[in-house]
Write a structure and sequence with these properties.
There is one protein chain. By secondary structure, this protein is α/β, with parallel strands linked by helices. It contains nine helices and nine strands. The chain has helices at 7-44, 76-85, 150-167, 177-180, 194-199, 208-221, 226-235, 248-261, 272-279, and strands at 66-71, 92-94, 102-104, 119-120, 123-124, 130-135, 140-141, 144-145, 174-176. It has a five-stranded mixed β-sheet with strand order 3-2-6-1-9. A two-stranded antiparallel ribbon has the order 4-5. A hairpin with a 2-residue loop joins β7 (140-141) and β8 (144-145). The longest helix has 38 residues, at 7-44. It is globular and about 80 Å long. The chain starts with 6 loop residues before the first helix and ends with a helix. 32% of the residues are buried.
């Protein structure tokens, strides 16, 4: 004979079962929460990088070796657009406003794209080791060139002194775009006041007394041959072919040299005055 459960017994058994399940949930839920919390804590706290910078080596210097000067061939507004939104840049831009404004467009610790294919004293890729300064100036060609306002050059000198002091840049490494890329560039052009920068200790200049002496000597004895000219230009930092011929590439380098040191005549011809300046260059 089968036993039967009375309603009261059934209710008691369900009550006991419900109580048991509640008790189990009470044990399992906190344990599950604890497990998930531990996992979350482990995932959200990766190992922390710790670097001790309390000791600095004495044997070090700046990565910056050169300062390259350019003109923009454009207005301030257009120059800012080109240098900040296009595939070209510079560390600084000096406007032609009154007074001029200096923009820093690229941090000095980063490489700006201003020099392009370039070389100076045998080192290529000048972008990687230089600070580029663009000067708002429309440039020119032939005998028509835009002058540089006095206040603009004053601002440039202040900026150069600050950069040179911080990076210990040598005078012969303050160059124009035409110095490092004479086959394709002419900026900052023949009206740029290199002599004034030299007087401030911010550019290389030649010994004028020696230049006069050498010029008289060249007129009396004749000019050196092309191989001497090419090798002497190379020793002065320029990238020039060593062909022994007065080819177009060599004339372009001579023209760049003349624009900087003898800007009243820059025809690319190696005359006595040009070679005398070259010989007297420190």
């Amino acid at each position: 004979m089968k036993a039967s459960l009375t309603p009261a017994c059934t209710r008691n058994r369900f009550a006991n079962l419900n109580h048991a399940l509640t008790f189990m949930r009470g044990l399992m839920v906190p344990a599950l929460v604890t497990l998930l919390t531990a996992c979350a804590t482990h995932v959200s706290q990766p190992p922390k990088l710790e670097i001790d910078r309390s000791i600095q080596a004495l044997s070090q210097n700046s990565r910056v070796e050169y300062i390259v000067l350019h003109y923009t061939s454009a207005s301030t507004e257009r120059s800012l657009e080109l240098l900040s939104r296009r595939n070209v840049s510079s560390h600084y831009l000096i406007t032609d406003d009154t007074p001029p404004k200096i923009y820093q467009l690229v941090d000095e610790s980063r490489r700006a794209w201003h020099a392009g294919v370039s070389q100076w004293y045998g080192s290529a890729g000048i972008n990687s080791a230089s600070i580029g300064i663009e000067i708002v100036n429309f440039g020119g060609s032939g005998t028509s060139w835009s002058p540089y306002p006095e206040a603009q050059i004053d601002a440039l000198i202040l900026l150069l002194k600050d950069i040179v002091q911080r990076h210990q840049i040598k005078r012969h490494n303050i160059v124009g775009h035409s110095d490092i890329a004479p086959q394709r560039k002419v900026d900052p052009g023949p009206l740029f006041p290199w002599k004034r920068l030299a007087d401030e200790g911010l550019a290389r200049w030649f010994d004028e007394a020696k230049a006069a002496q050498y010029q008289a000597e060249f007129k009396r004895k004749g000019l050196p041959d092309i191989r001497w000219i090419q090798s002497t230009l190379e020793r002065a930092g320029y990238s020039v072919p060593q062909t022994g011929e007065l080819d177009k590439a060599t004339r372009n380098v001579i023209r760049a040299f003349q624009m900087r040191y003898r800007p009243r005549l820059y025809d690319g011809q190696p005359d006595a005055e040009t070679l005398a300046i070259l010989k007297s260059l420190p």
